[in-house]
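Collaborator request, handled under Task 6.
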Amino acid sequence: MKEGLSSKASFFKLKNAIAKSSDESIKSAFETFLKQPKTYRLEYLQAHFNCAFDGYSFLGQEDSLNQYSTDLLHSFVLSKFSPVEKYPVEFASFLKSEWDSIVKTITSIEQEVISQLQISGLEDFYNTHIGHMASCNYYPAISKNVNEPLRLSKHVDVSLFTVFVYGSANGFSYEDEFGDIKALKVSDHCVVFPGYLLEYLTKGKIKALPHQVNLQKANQERYSFAFFSIPKPKQQMQFGDMNFSSDAYYKAYLNLF
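Structure tokens returned to the collaborator:
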């Protein structure tokens, strides 16, 4: 990762490299969920949660909050904004036994980035208002020809920071400060980059990172697990001269698309 503390930066550099954690538990849970009948999976759509971005989105869905209908993936957003009991039983063990430990690790990573940024009030804002969600993403193998060159369209994330704590997978590309698309090297180390909330709070001084997933080998499936630091739902927040609610921020983000 390269140093990223200026408005032109893409990624944040940590003092110590964070070794890859095992993603076996969350991947196994997600794989098992995806093998269930469609009628079962549809019981867990985002509309059934109605909390932040929690819930399931499927390939081709028209009304997902976190992917376009043309995007070639299934996703499930997890958090503890919703009760654990609302999630499919397949995720119960991960949420009850591993979630808190992983979020603790991610929080320490993000706090290290915040200390490097030296933005007045950001640490207090983070400690008071920020929670975490995880986006489990599955890109199935595509056996037929498709016209869409991307598996996931170019976008910025809703997060303060996005953390790939398990490392970066093949196909992730990002737009640099000159508008050029660059491939991120596959890595078994943690990757951290800014989301739209950091751009929002800094009034554009630090830009969110536009990124996408390229369709490279259509006959190969792909998994990725991204963790997002976002405002906890139903909060009124203040940062500098800004006063806004969580819901207002979510709407501002969704209005980008």
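The cover message to the collaborator said: "Residues 1-8 have pLDDT under 50 and may be disordered. Residues 245 and 251 are 10 Å apart (CA to CA). Please let us know whether this matches your experimental observations."
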